[in-house]
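note to self — DONT lose this again. spent like an hour looking for the file last time. sequence + predicted structure for the chain T wanted, 322 res
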Amino acid sequence: MQALFKRIITFLHLNKRLSKYIVFLLVSFVFWFLTVMSKQYQTTLIIPVEYTNLPESKQLINNPEKSISLRVRSPGFYLLSNNLFKSKALKIPANALSESSAKDYTQQYWVVNKNHQQLYKLLSSDIKIISVFPDTLFLRFQQKQSKKVPVIFNGDLDFSAQYRLKDKAKIYPDSIIIFGTEEKLVQTSFVETEHMVFDDLQKGVNEEIGLNKIDFISYSHQKVQLSFEVEKYTEKIVEVPIKAIKLPKDCKIKFYPPRVVLITTVAFADYDKLNASLFVAEVNASQLEGKSKLTVNLTRKPSFADVLKIKPSRVEFLLIKQ
């Protein structure tokens, strides 16, 4: 950039007629700009609004205006400077507003047309306000109620190959107090966490996460602690004998095959303690008439193992009367 600037200076120095023309052009532009900017103009300015000192015991039930539109007149200089820089926010303290009561709520209001002096503090003294919209700002409140609701995890857990969730994901606190109008509390039975995605998990997580916002509801907690453990697992095949239940007293029954094969998944740490004695595979023999096969039901299994498949899931039988 510096080299380019030097080349331009050198070029203008060698071309004196051109340099004089450019200087004349710049001076003309400055005079034109000053003339234009000194004239009076009308435009619309947007002033952001911030509400402060909201009552903690009451719930805001409307969406108050977030900005005010001002139709103003001023010399161009002041309008240009106002548009170049971000407008200051108009701060309105709720505890200083006039109040009126309706059947189901209380209402506080701020009449804009009666408070031009406060608006002028945000503008240049040379800017004249012609009109404003809206002419009145309203805040409507109802008395807050409270209710305890559970917190539910909202997200996805994606595990690496041969890894899985150990036990259940835990949230602390698992429930919070919510505050709002009676109508809103009736509609709200739980609060969800922000949506979280955990990819390629190989180890546990202990992380603070936020809560999804609900319009016109406030919370006793803004964040909760999410924690869960991850374990590496493998497959294990277990053979389990089949037992008959509800068999007539004067009968015996034989199954073909007499055992079922269970394809299970188990954590590496629990692999050695997983055996057939921890499972019970049963067949209901109370209704045999017209059937050639009976369904095998797994009525007991250890909590630390998952059964992927029972082979076979239905077995042939031979009923022997004594």
